[in-house]
Amino acid sequence: MRCHKGVDRPVRKDVGSCGKLLDRIAFGALIKRKRGEARLTQETLAGDVFGDPGRKADISRIENGHTKPQEATIQKLCDVLKISAAEMEPIRQARPAAEQLANIPALSREDLQNLAARFELDGVYTMPDGELRRLLTLKADEHRALKSEVDNIDDGLIRLSNLKAAAQDAIARVNLDEVEDLLSRVQEVELEEAAKTAELRANNALLRGRVDQAYRILCAAADSFAAVDLLEPARRKILGYAEKIMRHDMRFGGAGLPLSVEMMRQTATDDLRSLNAWLWAAGKNTEAIGLRNQGTRTDGPKGADLLAQAVAAYRAALEVRTRADHPADWAMTQNNLGIALQNQGTRTEGPKGADLLAQAVVAYRAALEVRTRADHPVDWAMTQNNLGAALRNQGTRTDGPKGTDLLAQAIAAYRAALEVYTHADHPVDWAMTQNNIGIALQNQGTRTDGPKGADLLAQAVAAFRAALEVYTRADHPVNWATTQNNLGAALQHQGTHTDGPKGANLLAQAVTAFRAALEVRTRADQPVQWAMTQENIAVALLARAERVDAQHPRDDLAAALAAVDGALEVFDPENMSFNYEKATRSRADIQAAMDALGDEATEA
User: Fold this and answer.
1) What is the pTM of this model?
2) Total structural domains in the chain?
């Protein structure tokens, strides 16, 4: 077959001129990355490749995978951007993308990057393998769901064809009432089928991270139903479309949360409340969920304001979702309100923060009036766990016996949750609750003197070790690292309150746990958590060096200085002033201990 010269044109198959295979999407992603690394504009690259800077649009089409370039253009691009044959090999020999999606754990790094290009994922070239595989696994699930939905398109078309045939028969019999009924049903089916197609388009847009496009498509699809039912647009947005956009944001980030909130604010209006109060309340609850999730990921006054808006929206929903009329919805909204109040309280200082946490406790206890263990065991356990978290936060901020009592109530709530969250039936929830119990026990132990405090710290260590039975590095790396860090903190407190070799050994175990956490909490992937753990290591090493039975104090202090200096490279004095100042004080303590050793320690 002869190769034809001419303008690069869009093609339907990934088969190049002269029969050479090329994954044009992966090739486009490679060109875009290499051009960025070379600091070239599309215009400059067009001049180098085509001899015409005005053809930058052709470069754009190639980079976006919209066209399959001719072989001569491919070779020229490779020459200009210094792309090796090894880099081109996986693109030349690419397997069908669907086959790759079914085998993500076995894919090479190059295959992962090429597959990610199809979903337009950002930052894939610097993303760790584990995170990239995790994101692609989520995308594979969405891809399979989309394929299944597309495969079912024919069912609706057959139904529509049958209705039209029946309408034609009614016309032939001049039965106009039947014609009207059938045509009305045809219109409803046509709208339903159009909406299904719109939803498929929205799913495809979300697969590529185009949340704005999905939002517009879904809003238009919902609004089209106003012709047959005034409430149907609101039902679709509140009971499905907003959650779809929100769920995508929670998995992959992006603009889904604010868009879902905007959709609810345009939908859950006073007019809707007058037409259908229950649907309006559901919209306010969905709006509140979006606001709460936005607030928890937003720093400063803006985040606090978003959380306050979430609380207001939940309280509005409760005007309709009363315990008398809608007990299950009332309990769910009370639980959600508690979460928002707790988020507010944990980031608010002073009496105001304490009051917000107290309100959260009241909301959780209200939810438990309906969410009983007998009738709703899993929801009961979840709310007990939430109640424990609010009580723990209250307790850590409250001095004296009252604070100790609040921590005891928190532990009781967590232990209640474990009656349902068993290792056998709910292993991940069991591990989460064990970790939570460990934190509360540690809080209790650090404020309790004598043998009782030591025993509480030992219980905390046992709880963290129990959580690690499920939170393994292989299956739950982030939770494993967090629990290792928590375990290290508990062991450190144990060690500082324990004399002799046993205390020194506990501090050594603490350092080991902290260093284990750093296997996942790397500076590249989780810089803030890495820095916090480095500071924890420094404090533990300082505690060991200051013991009267210290074996190698200077070595411990030198390692502590190195650790805290690393943390200070990450802690921004402007945006992380609290962490920066705390680490700075730790460094001063370590340096003072080093200076106190003097020449005598050096000579020894």
Assistant:
1) 0.68
2) 1
| CATH number where 81 lies | 1.10.260.40
Please tell me the distance from the alpha carbon of residue 62 to that of residue 226, in angstroms, as a whole number: 42
**124 lies in some domain:** no
Q: Is 29 inside any structural domain?
A: yes
DSSP H helical ranges for 173-230: 176-207, 211-223
Tell me how far CA of residue 374 lies from CA of 138, 377, 381, in angstroms: 35, 6, 11
Distance CA 421, CA 414 (A): 10
Return d(Cα 525, Cα 250) in angstroms, integer.
19
Which residues touch 444 (CB under 8 Å, ≥6 apart)? 404, 407, 408, 411, 453, 456
Instruction: Give per-residue pLDDT as tens, 396-431.
Output: 999 899 999 999 999 999 999 999 999 999 999 999
Tokens 């002799």 correspond to: 500
State which residues form the domain around 59: 17-94
pLDDT, tens only, 40-75: 899 889 888 888 888 888 888 888 777 778 888 888
CA angle 231, 237, 240 (to 5 degrees): 115
The structure tokens 């090429």 sit at 114
* Assigned token pair, 29: 């992603």
Beta carbons within 10 angstroms of residue 399's beta carbon: 8
Backbone φ/ψ region at 240: left (φ over 0), alpha (ψ -120 to 50), beta: alpha
495-528 per-residue burial string, b: 16 or more CB within 10 A, e: under 16: bbbbeeeebbebbbbbbebbebbbebbeeeebee
Tell me what percent of the residues of the chain surpass a pLDDT of 90: 50
81 domain-assigned: yes
Residue 23, phi-psi category: left (phi > 0), alpha (psi -120 to 50), beta (remainder): beta
Asked if 22 and 68 count as a contact pair (C-beta separation under 8 A), the reply is yes
- Does 365 map to a domain? no
Which residues are CB-neighbours of 494 under 8 A, at least 6 positions away? 445, 454, 457, 458, 461, 503, 506, 510
